[in-house]
């Protein structure tokens, strides 16, 4: 695998290409992700003189059989920007490597252990078939709205609460690719509203923004009046 270095509306000197090869050690990257397919480095320059301290931008894109990992940074020169982007790439690679390692180390429970770990799970008889309800013990059934619920109610397998810092749409896409999910919930830094970015067919992405409609809220409020009689 080679490192592809290219410039966007700017020339990339040979000295910088050699520095990239020295900075991004392929052996170290492949130790963290053995399924790396390609590693691209793109250099661009901001012509606005007001952004002289961030005029050079370096974006590193690592593609493998898993999720795409990107890291970018801007600085007053391309060498400093490369150093910052390389640090971000290394941190994200280690995070993904540790995540894969923890998944492999997790112990899987057998089918016989499921009833002990999941309340309300069906049990199996000696033939490996689902045991009749009388063998499992009578479970009371009640109706809540349109749902028929057994026992204490719907089983919530997992519930998580995350503290989320507002981020841009581009950052949300990066985070989704990093964790390898098909969707990512985040708080949009522009609208301050919850949003979801998700993967569509091929390489397309979609985004859903949630906003509060006061008319809908009032219509569903218990204090809202009923229909007028004729």
TrEMBL record:
Gene Ontology terms, MF aspect: ribosomal small subunit binding
Keywords, alphabetical: Cytoplasm, Translation regulation
InterPro entries xrefs: HPF/YfiA_ribosome-assoc, HPF_long/plastid, RHF-like, RHF/RaiA, Ribosom_S30AE_C, Ribosom_S30AE_C_sf
Cellular location(s): Cytoplasm
GO-annotated biological processes: negative regulation of translational elongation
Pfam families according to UniProt: Ribosom_S30AE_C (PF16321), Ribosomal_S30AE (PF02482)
Sigma 54 modulation/S30EA ribosomal protein C-terminal domain location: 153-207
Entry's transmembrane regions: none
One Gene Ontology cellular component annotation held by this UniProt entry: cytosolic small ribosomal subunit
Complexes and interactors: Interacts with 100S ribosomes.
Function: Required for dimerization of active 70S ribosomes into 100S ribosomes in stationary phase; 100S ribosomes are translationally inactive and sometimes present during exponential growth.
Family: Belongs to the HPF/YfiA ribosome-associated protein family. Long HPF subfamily.
Protein name, UniProt field: Ribosome hibernation promoting factor
Organism: Streptomyces griseicoloratus
């Amino acid at each position: 695998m080679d490192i592809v270095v290219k410039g966007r509306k700017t020339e990339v000197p040979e000295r910088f290409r050699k520095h990239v090869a020295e900075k991004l050690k392929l052996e170290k990257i492949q130790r963290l992700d053995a399924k790396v397919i390609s590693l691209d480095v793109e250099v661009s320059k901001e012509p606005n003189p007001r952004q002289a301290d961030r005029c050079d931008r370096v974006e590193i894109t690592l593609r493998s059989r898993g999720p795409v990992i990107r890291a970018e940074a801007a600085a007053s020169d391309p060498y400093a920007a490369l150093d910052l982007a390389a640090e971000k790439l290394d941190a994200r690679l280690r995070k993904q490597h540790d995540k894969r390692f923890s998944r492999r180390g997790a112990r899987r429970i057998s089918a016989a252990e499921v009833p002990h770990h999941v309340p309300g799970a069906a049990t199996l008889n000696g033939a490996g078939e689902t045991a009749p309800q009388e063998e499992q013990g009578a479970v009371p059934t009640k109706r809540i709205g349109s749902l028929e619920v057994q026992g204490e109610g719907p089983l919530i397998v997992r519930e998580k609460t995350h503290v989320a810092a507002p981020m841009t749409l581009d950052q949300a896409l990066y985070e989704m690719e990093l964790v390898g999910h098909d969707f990512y919930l985040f708080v949009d830094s522009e609208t301050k509203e919850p949003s979801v970015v998700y993967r569509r067919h091929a390489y397309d992405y979609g985004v859903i923004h949630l906003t509060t409609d006061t008319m809908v809220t009032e219509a569903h409020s218990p204090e809202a009046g009923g229909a007028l009689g004729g």
